[in-house]
Amino acid sequence: MPAAPGRVLVVDDSQVIRQLIRVNLELDGFEVMTASDGAECLEAVQHFQPDVITLDIAMPRLDGLRTVRRLRSDPRVGHIPLLLVSASAGQGEPPRGVDAVLAKPFEPAQLVCLVRRLWAEGRTPAVRLAKSVAE
After folding, report:
1. Who contacts 102 (Cβ-Cβ below 8 Å, separation ≥6)?
2. Are 13 and 58 in contact (CB under 8 A)?
3. Using CA atoms, how far apart are residues 79 and 37, in angstroms rounded to an integer?
4. Burial profile 54-68: b = 16 or more Cβ within 10 angstroms, e = fewer
5. pTM score > 0.90 for this model?
6. 31-57 confidence digits (pLDDT tens)
7. Residue 2 falls within a domain, yes or no?
8. C-alpha dihedral sign at 25, 31, 33, 38
């Protein structure tokens, strides 16, 4: 499979989960940066400029859902696809502003597949335009 030139920001308060996600995405060719909570995510997103962000829900300082709302309200980064990766993730429709949900525990191959899909969709101008209009 060809390497994806995309950038992913991985946000989780568990160092083990951050490392697991990072290693699997890097093996697939992604450039990865990590953050331990939503506050770090909001700082990192500005200078790292990711193509996809993975977020946990339960995190200190600024949780995943509040981080989603802050990201979506910022026109500079509101278009970035968001993947919620959480043990708290329910079945059914993703929460408002979230593009996809992956429940923990997860298969690394499933995570990589979802990130790849979101990366590809996020690079399509029509999808980006539709997302910005919908938000």
Report:
1. 83, 84, 85, 86, 89, 110, 111, 114
2. yes
3. 20
4. bbbbebeebbbbebb
5. no
6. 999 999 999 999 999 999 999 999 999
7. no
8. negative
